[in-house]
């Protein structure tokens, strides 16, 4: 098994490509070791000292490290953990645990606008962000403000605010006049 790695815009995050499917659909975010109990793979990666976050896409695993830790010191152990997991035949997620679509539910008077927002996120934003090892999902819409949740490499990325304001906000405002602003939300 050969696992490729790619850098991301976030220097604390590296994208690992195992060359096979990680999740059949959706994404899974593990912002701490305590949240990884549903995933044998995430638990194994968190066992590497210095790992502070794990995120799964359909064909990649994004790992975030502590600031004081150098990639040269943890990358071989992370590669080993991912390789051991896939060679073991254990599931990536326990039980029915596939990934989630990610978007929060929203109904009411703004349901049509929210549908348009989610459609633009799914077709224009999320594929590009997945290239960088992360995901951005809809969290809410209130009085012209769109709230988005940033995961994986996007969470804590130095360029994420610029991406949010200059890229996503401009895109949504262009296609949906009701959108006035985009803000990140921590979940």
Attribute tags:
alpha+beta; 187 residues; three-stranded mixed β-sheet; five-stranded antiparallel β-sheet; single chain; 8 strands
Summarize the model shown.
The protein has 187 residues and is an alpha+beta fold.
Give the SSE map:
Blueprint: E1 4-7, E2 13-17, E3 28-30, H1 40-46, E4 51-56, E5 61-65, H2 71-88, H3 111-131, E6 134-142, E7 145-152, H4 160-175, E8 181-185
Could you explain how this protein is built, in words?
- This protein has 187 residues and is an alpha+beta fold.
- 33% of the residues lie in helices and 24% in strands.
- It contains 4 helices and 8 strands.
- The chain has a 5-stranded antiparallel beta sheet with strand order 1-2-5-4-3. A 3-stranded mixed beta sheet has the order 6-7-8.
- The radius of gyration is 17 Å and the shape is elongated.
- The N and C termini lie far apart (35 Å).
- The model has no long low-confidence stretch (mean pLDDT 87).
